[in-house]
Design goal:
Two copies of one chain form a homodimer. Chain A is α/β, with parallel strands linked by helices. Chain A has one domain (about 5-170): Rossmann fold. In chain A, helix 1 (about 20-25) packs parallel to helix 6 (about 150-170). The first copy, chain A, is built from six helices and five strands; from the N terminus they run E-H-E-H-H-E-H-E-H-E-H. Chain A has a five-stranded parallel beta sheet with strand order 2-1-3-4-5, with helices on both faces. The first copy, chain A, is about 40% helix and about 20% strand. The first copy, chain A, has helices at about 20-25, 35-40, 50-55, 75-85, 115-130, 150-170; strands at about 5-10, 30-35, 60-65, 100-105, 135-145. The interface of A and B includes residues 72, 80 and 120 of A.
Chain lengths: ~170, ~170
């Protein structure tokens, strides 16, 4: 089966519900490699060559993160800025044209605010990156109410996160 | 005159045309404080208290940055995530309600791709932050073709950047 690399960004993974469950669930599969950026690069000094090699070895690239202020956590943005360089990801030669990208996003709050227009804006930078570099966008899985504000909310979030992980694997393998 | 704090994010300011010119131009004014995040926090360890105090001392907050992959450089995102905390920027009490935000953005490429819809998506996270925290959005100044791909392009970019700085000051003081 084609290999999948999950680029996981979550500064407090031990306190996380969604990103912890989803990444652990998908990491059980032999053909999935999870790269937890916060653990690998606590000082934001991305090892560009290693990260580029991880992409070259994979067919599918999953961006796994919680929504922070309508965007990605900063470590994921730094990873994108450092890894998607001219000459590697775009320009006369691109090494990534046969890859597919996926967004796997958890949102702490309820879906009320997040209509199609808002979601399009939120997904835009990674979809734009994908398009600019001539990769194929494989779609997104987005889950809401992923929080531990109450014990009941946390319990519900755990169930939703397992469903999210299954849905993501289905999307990748479809 | 009310004080302005410019939050400047540019990892390579010495190679920069636009952000260097705009920040130096505005920094000449007594009531403007420029905080260059990359210089202050090379390891991304934001001094949250100091940054929050800088905001409290100002009336206007300018986000000054070059567009990196349809979004801010990572250091500015980390600053936002760390500084705009619950209890300070939003929640039962917010210390920032009387502040105004501005976006001052340089884009390396030509304006062709950047129609209103795309610009709305690009400005969305900071405008959303502003709205969520009940600050007032004061508007944006956006300049294109800010690059040094050729000596002629660099010369033109310098001129545009000076005009950009003047326009920004006009907007802040309007």
């Amino acid at each position: 089966m084609p290999k999948t690399v999950m680029i996981l960004a979550h500064p407090k993974i031990e306190e996380s519900i969604g990103n912890k469950i989803i990444s652990e669930f998908t990491n059980k599969y032999d053909n999935v490699e999870v790269r937890h950026l916060d653990k690998l690069y606590p000082n934001f000094k991305i090892d560009v060559k290693t990260e580029q090699e991880a992409l070259l070895n994979a067919k599918n690239i999953v961006f796994q993160y919680p929504l922070y202020w309508y965007s990605t956590p900063a470590i994921l943005k730094e990873w994108i800025d450092q890894v998607f360089q001219y000459g590697f990801a775009f320009g006369q030669e691109s090494a990534l044209n046969d890859k597919k990208t996926f967004i796997s996003l958890t949102i702490g709050s309820a879906p009320d605010y997040y209509n199609d227009d808002v979601m399009e804006k939120i997904l835009f930078p990674i979809k734009g990156l994908t398009e600019y570099c001539n990769l194929t966008y494989g779609g997104e899985v987005v889950s809401f109410n992923i929080n531990n504000y109450t014990p009941e909310a946390a319990e519900k979030a755990k169930q939703v996160s397992v469903e999210h992980a299954k849905k993501l694997l289905g999307l990748i393998n479809s």
